[in-house]
Amino acid sequence: MRSIRTRTEALVLLLFCAACSTGVGPPIGEDRPGDPQRGGVLRTAFFTDVRGLDAATAFDTAASALESLIYDGLVSYDDQGKIVPVLAERIDVSPDGKRYVFPLRRGVTFHDGSELTAADVKRSMERALHVKTPCPVPSYYERVVGYAAYHDGKAEELVGVKVEGDYQIAIELSEPDATFLHIMALPIVAPVCKSAGRVWERTFASQPCGAGPFKVTRYENGQIIKLVRHEGYWDKGKPYLDGVDWYLSMQSFTQRFKFDQGDIDYIRELSEADSLLYRTTPAWRGRGEWEPSLTTGGTFMNTEMPPFDNRHVRRAVSYAIDREQLAGVRPGHVRAHAKMVPNVLIAPEPEYPQQRFDYATALEEMRLAGYAYDPKTGQGGYPHEIPYLAILDSYAQTAAEIYQQQLAKIGIRIKIQVVGWPTFLAKTGRRKTAQMGFSGWHADFPDPSTFFEPILATKSIQDEESQNAAFFSNKELDDVLDRARRSTSTDERKALYRRAEAIVADEAPWATTYTYSYLELWHPYLHGYRPHPVLSQHVRNAWIDAGQKKLARRGARGLPFLDRLVQSGSKHARTTLALAESGGSR
Amino acid sequence: MFDPRAFRRFKQNRGAVFGAALVLVLVVFAAFGPLLAGHDPNISDFGGGRDGSGALLGPSSRHLLGVDPLLRDSFSRLAHGARISLLVAFFATTLSIVVGAAVGLASGYAEDTRAAGLDTFLMRMVDVGLSFPYLLLVMAIGAAVGDTTILTILMVLGLTSWFGTARIIRAKTIQVRHLDFIVASRALGQTTSFILLRHILPNVAGPLIVIASASVAQMIIAESVLSYLQVGLPPPTATWGRMLLEGQRFYTVAPRLVLAPGIMIFLAVLGFNLLGEGLRDALDPHED
After folding, report:
1. Would the pTM count as exceeding 0.80?
2. Residue A97: φ, ψ to 5°
C-alpha cells in the first residue's frame, strides 16, 4: 500500500515538474523547396486590438500590417525595400522633381468588383486629406499643389492631383520632396472602393474595401479579423493563400502555446524568455529571423500641460532615465537608445547629438524648474502625482515601472495607468488629456523624416488623433525638417537631421530610451515569408505546403505530452534562462 | 454567546484546526513578512538581481525567493501581496456582511407586515444583483472606475457580494421573528431596532460567521482575478494576481515566479474554506 502511494506521489510530482518546465515543441513540417502552392489559411495574432482598418485613418503598426493585405497603392516596396510601381505601370518624374505621372494598370478591380480608374485615385486622396477626415499625418502631403486650400476646406478639390484620362494620374508638387514616393506607398492614399464615399465615415473602418489581394469577411473587435482571397486580384495567380485569420488581443503567452501546437503558423510577439527558449532549442536552430529594428521607444511629455510645459522638467526626465537598466530587464529584445532615428537608418557616430543618463544634471534641472529635490531627505520635487499611460501587456508597461523607480529619485512621482491600445491612442491623441506616457514610433518608410515630422512637427498637432502626443511645437525644428524634405543632397539632409536630433535632445519632448526588436518565427510548412526591410509582418506572398502541414500536425499532435516529458527538465530550463537573460545567442 | 460545546466540536475537527492554523500563519506572514524581507517590494535590484551567468537570481541569501522579471525581491512582493489580499478580503467581507445583514434583517422583519413593500423592494433588488455573473460585474465596475485604489477595490468587492448573505439572513430572521420570545418582546413594547439588534441579530450570528469565513476566501480569489486581469490595483503594487500575470511569461524557465503566488492563493483559500466549514459544523446544534 505504501509503495503504491509513494509511486503515485512520484508520478504526480513528475507530471507536475513536466508541466512546470516544459520546453518548446519541434518545428512542424520540413523545408521542401518547390513551387508555391495555392490554398490554405494563414493564422497569426496580435496582442493588441485593431480599432479600424480605414486606410485614411488607421495608421498604427497592427492596422498597417492588415492594411498592406487589403489595399494596394500606386507604389510599394520590393523585397529589398526599393520603391516599385504596383497599381501604377511605371513612375515618370519631371526633371525638376515637381511632377509625378502614374499611368495605371488596366483591369484592376476593387473588392466590390468595380474597376479602378484615375478618378478613384483622386477621390481616395481627397477623401484621406479632407478636413473632416481624422488622418493622422495629412501634413505628409502638404507639398501637393492645392493641399492647404483643400485641407482647410477652402477648395472643393485637390487641384494638384490631375486625372488625365481613365488610366493616368498626375500629381504636381509645389516644391521637390525627397520622401514623395515613400508617402505614396503609405496605405493612407491607397485607392478605396466607391462605397467609401468622397468623405470619411466611421463605418468604413470595419467594412474596408480596397484593391489589395485580400478582402475582409469578418471583423470582430478584440477577437478576430478574417480575410479571404480577392478573386479578382490584378496579379493573376496571387495571392497564394485562401485567406488569413488574424486573432486580436491574444497575449504573447497564449500565442506561444498556440504556435507550439501549430494552431497559429507565424509568431512575432514572443516574450524574451520564450524567444530564447526557441533559439536555444536545437530543432529550431537557424530558424526565424529578427525583424529589422526600425523602432524608437521612450516616453512623451505633453508640452502643453504642467509640469512638462517647463522645459527643465522635461530635461530632468531625460537625464534621470538610466537606459541601460531598461535594456537589462529584457536582454536580447531591448537595447538602450537615446536618439530619435534608429541606428539602421543613421549609424551612430562620435559626438552624435543624443540624450544621456546623468543623475546630477537631472537634479539640477529639477532645481532650475523650481522643484528642487533632496534625495537624502526625500523632500521637494514636483508636488503632484503624474498619471503615466502605458499599454496593456506590453514592454511599455515594464518600462513604465522602471521609469517610476528612476523618476522617484528626482522627485517626480508617476502613477501608471494601464490601458488597451485603442484607449491609449484616443487619449494620447487628444489635446490636453495625457500628461505623460509611452511613446514609440515605427518607421512609416525608411527615411529619417518619418521619426520627426509625424510626431514632433507643429503641423502634426491636431485636437484629436494627434500623432504629436507631446504637442511639441518648435519653429527651428519645423524649419530644419522643411529644408531636409526639400533637399535632394544626401549630405545636406544628413546634417539637417543631425540638427533635428540636437533640438529634440535639448528640448526633450520625448525621452528616447530604447529600441525593441522582435524575433519572428514560422513553421517550415509556411513558405514565402521573411521579415521585410520596411513593411512589418508583410505576409502577402506567403504560401502553405498543405501536405506537410497536415502530416506534420498529425504527428505533432499525437504525443505532445510525452514530447514534453522528454524535452523538459530543470537543467535545460536553467541553462536556457541563463542564455536568455544574458542575451548571448542573439 | 460562547458555547463551549461548539468550541469542543471545532477542536475535534482536524480539517478546521488545520484551516485555522493556515489562516494564522498567513496573518503572521502578512504582518511580519515584509519586515523580514528587508527589501522594498517595488525597487529593482539592478546591481545584484542576476547570478554569475546573467540569469535572474533564484532563491539565495540575498533574495530568499529570488527576484522577479523586473529584478525585484519575490519574497517581499509575496509578503506585501499577502497584506493586500488579506486587507482587501477582510474589509470587503466586513462591508458585505454588514450590508447583507442589514438588508436581510430589515427585509425578514418587514415580511408579512404593513411594511411588506420594503421586503419586496429589497428582495427584488437582491434578485437583480444575483442575476449578474459576480466576477463579470466586479470586472465591469473595476474597469469603469479606472483609477483603482485599495479603497475602490474593497468597495467594489464588498458592495457586489452581499446579495446572497441578505437572502440567508432574511430567511433566518423570518424564522426567529415568529418565536415566542420575540412576540413577548413586542408585547412588552420594545422598539423594532432593539428587537432586531438585541434579540434577532445574536440568533443569526452563527450563519453570519460561517458566511464571512467563506466570503474571505472568495474575496481573495476575486482580488487576485482582478489583479491578474489588470483591472485591480495598478502596477507596481505587489498583489498575488499580478505576480501570477508577471511570472507567467517566465513559466517555462523560472516556474517559481508562478508557483509562489499560486501556492499562496491556494493555501489562503484552502485555509479560509476549511475554517468556514469547521465553524459551520461547530455552530450547527444538530451535530451534537
Report:
1. no
2. 70, 20
